[in-house]
Amino acid sequence: MSVYQFGKFISCYGGAGFFDGLDYNGYGCYCGLGGQGTPLDDTDRCCLVHDNCYGRAAAEADCGSLDPYIIIYDYEQTTDQAGNCVIQCKKAADYSWYSTNPECREFMCECDREGAKCFADKRPTYNQAYESYDKDSC
C-alpha cells in the first residue's frame, strides 16, 4: 500500500526506524487525514505540500480517489557514496504492459518521495508540542 511505502521512504530519508514515521500522523494542522488553516511550521508545511500532491493525482495522473492511499508502486532504494539513502521511482514507461495505471504509480511514488525528503530536510523544525494536534485549533 502507498501509505506503507510512504512510511518506508520517511524511514529511509530520515535515518530512523519505520515506526518513527508514525510521529508525523496527526502532527500539526496538515499531517494525517484532513487539513485546514495555516501550517504551524515547516514540518507541517511538508504535509500540506504532500496533501496537495495527492490532490493533484486525479487530474495529472488519472488516479482514482483511493489510489493515493492504496496503489502500490515500484522504486529502487540505494545508498550514495556519502551513505545517504536514495530513492528512484520507476518511470511509467518502465512498467510492464499489463500493469494497471503506471502513470498514477509513478506520480504517487514521486509525491511520497518528495514528502519524505521534505520531512528529512525539515526535521529540525519538528516540535513535539504539535503531535496529536487539535485540528479544530487550526
UniProtKB/TrEMBL annotation:
Query: Where is it chiefly localized?
Result: secreted
UniProt xrefs under Gene3D superfamilies: Phospholipase A2 domain
| One Gene Ontology biological process | phospholipid metabolic process
Q: Which cofactor does it need?
A: Ca(2+)
**Which SMART domains does the record associate with it?**
PA2c
* Limits of the Phospholipase A2-like central domain: 2-138
Location in the cell reads: Secreted
Query: Which terms does the record give in the GO molecular function aspect?
Result: calcium ion binding; calcium-dependent phospholipase A2 activity; phospholipid binding
Keyword flag Hydrolase: no
Which cysteine-cysteine pairs are annotated as disulfide bonds in the entry? C31-C47, C46-C118, C53-C111, C63-C104, C89-C109
Q: Which domain of life is it from?
A: Eukaryota
Q: How is the cofactor bound?
A: Binds 1 Ca(2+) ion per subunit.
Which positions are annotated as binding Ca(2+)?
Y30, G32, G34, D51
- The record lists the membrane-crossing segments as none
Q: Which InterPro entries match?
A: PLA2, PLA2-like_dom, PLA2_Asp_AS, PLA2_histidine, PLipase_A2_dom_sf
Q: Name the residues annotated as catalytic in the UniProt entry.
A: H50, D112
Keywords, alphabetical: Calcium, Disulfide bond, Metal-binding, Secreted
Q: Which family does it belong to?
A: Belongs to the phospholipase A2 family.
Q: Which PANTHER family match?
A: PHOSPHOLIPASE A2, PHOSPHOLIPASE A2 FAMILY MEMBER
Q: What is this protein called?
A: Phosphatidylcholine 2-acylhydrolase
Q: Which organism is it from?
A: Patiria pectinifera
Q: Which gene encodes it?
A: PLA2-3
